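Problem: given the chain below (331 residues), write out its structure.
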Amino acid sequence: MDAITRIKQLGMPRRNNELWTFFPVNKIPNILSADGNCRIADVCSSNEDFAYEEDFAALLPIVCNARELVKTIGDGENEMAMLKCNNDFGRTVLNIGKNAKASIEILDNKVMHEICAERFDINVAEGAELEIFFANPANDLPLTFRHFDIKQAAHSTVHFANVLQDAGIGRISARVELNGEGANFDYRSLNILKGTASKHQRLTILHNAPETVSTQFVRNILDKNAYASYDGQVVVGNSCSKVNSSQLVNTILLSDGPSVSVKPVLKIYHDDVECTHGNTVGELDKDQMFYLTSRGIPADKARAMLTKAFAKELFLELPNGPAKKRLMQVI
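Solution.
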């Protein structure tokens, strides 16, 4: 089934669709309408079968015939690269070879558009190590989607990290398949939002092999009327022993206006696993604020110090490299 047929089957996202529970779906332009604003091409340039795809945002670049960029890093190679989409819709295919090491930074297309959507298909071979990250300065793009389809072979490692400061509405979605024993996926995301910014994350992690590891660690610093959501699903197969998975979301509310929604989901079909999830929401610690201000530090500076420390702690466990350096710089 081609992408155009599949997206028409799915229809526009609705709030009762579990993939879009927290997202303001009324803000998405109706690209399936029959009027002159319809963006779907008459013929899909891709001949791939997308009958499996459930995510509307993942199909958007395909049905709009986004120009495909293929980047291959050979076996045993070590490479750094930057990727930037120059159009409303973009698709990138990354093939990371066996035992290769790669660091990929994704840059924003900052030209103002009504809607932008990117899709990344990432194949990580046995023993490979990949860090993929984005930490772009705040911008006011109105609506952005970024979808990742990641497949990992045995003993591969992916460090996925980002800082989101945009002023508009955005959604990051990821479907990760841990298909080989010992595969490790580490996801860390920081939202620093104010005004009416609205950022949403939807992850599905499939543990398809034993002794696989996944970590989802998200922190939010929200002010004014900002809104953030995290919707994460971990699925452990019935033959996948000694799986280790954790989900943790920490949020600091800097005023009375912002809000956060969190929905962790665990589907476990094996009893020899260790899977956890947690969520905390609160204000800056009053005792810590008192400690700093009682030593002559102005309240505004004390507040900035505490929020920065809260943010930077998220990335301390990342390996030393381009991703960690860049993320620490922008906080």
